[in-house]
Amino acid sequence: EGIAVAGLALKTKLGRVTLTKIPDAPGVAARIFAGLAEAGVVVDDIIQTVVGDGVATVAFTVEHSDLAAIKPVLEAILHNLGGGHATIDVGFSKVSAVGVGVRSHAGVAAAMFKALAEAGVNIANITTSEIKIGVLIDQADGEKAMQAVHRAFGLDRAV
Amino acid sequence: EGIAVAGLALKTKLGRVTLTKIPDAPGVAARIFAGLAEAGVVVDDIIQTVVGDGVATVAFTVEHSDLAAIKPVLEAILHNLGGGHATIDVGFSKVSAVGVGVRSHAGVAAAMFKALAEAGVNIANITTSEIKIGVLIDQADGEKAMQAVHRAFGLDRAV
Ligand SMILES: C[C@@H](O)[C@H](N)C(=O)O
Ligand SMILES: C[C@@H](O)[C@H](N)C(=O)O
Which of A33, A97, B37, B115 could cross-link to B152 by cystine, CB 3.0-4.6 Å? Predict the structure, then answer.
């Protein structure tokens, strides 16, 4: 039925910032990322969810090297927004399954998540696009996760 | 500095399901998406955030046509998980900025979000990949959002 996973990628040494209780109003996301851009922070993935009560959760991943200086940058951004809370976590890796039609089928996502679950790997964050499913996991689980997902999709493990 | 937005895409008639208070343990995501796959639901984007208290928020978009039958599917999934809450919202469009190096710079995200803010468009969800920044907005704001972002990135509006 046309679902294909062409390959996997592993990106390591990622940190994650989760901003909670962010006011859900136009201009807020712009101010957060303008503040990060001005501070020279290189942002990897961005995810935002809302639970419908006027606030949003905005999370983004950054490379470990960018985390050292980020705390004051976040404090300034939240002060400027008049609210919100920032949590910084380190030690993640991102496993991405890349292919045509990958995320257009819940079955491919289910197969990837099942492989991770059976390997005992917890999924911290999920972000997808038309051609990719990306999961953030504990950095310590990176190799185990890659092997499990490779097996699940019948891909040859190239190193 | 190598940031390029090559084009924009608009996808309309999207609904969104947000599952809150989902147990943050291995196997949970697999069960959610296996349940959706078995029910034949076509999933567009998937986003998951966690706020560190043992629960996660898992959201996904689906085309309006798939929403009609989804309520009992979600109830069965949550019953099987032993917890969680599902919210279904309709009437969204997704604006995606596509390019090389698009999301690797907080500045490009900031510019896109600022254009939307200045057009008075609220950003409901954000999901990115290496080559794309996708925002979910009110369907009614679709045209206005596309024009604002096209202008911001100096792209020609091809109809
Ligand atoms: C939370 C944030 O994304 C807000 N909704 C905005 O449009 O900027
Ligand atoms: C919440 C869900 O993603 C869970 N952490 C899992 O690994 O399946």
Answer: B115
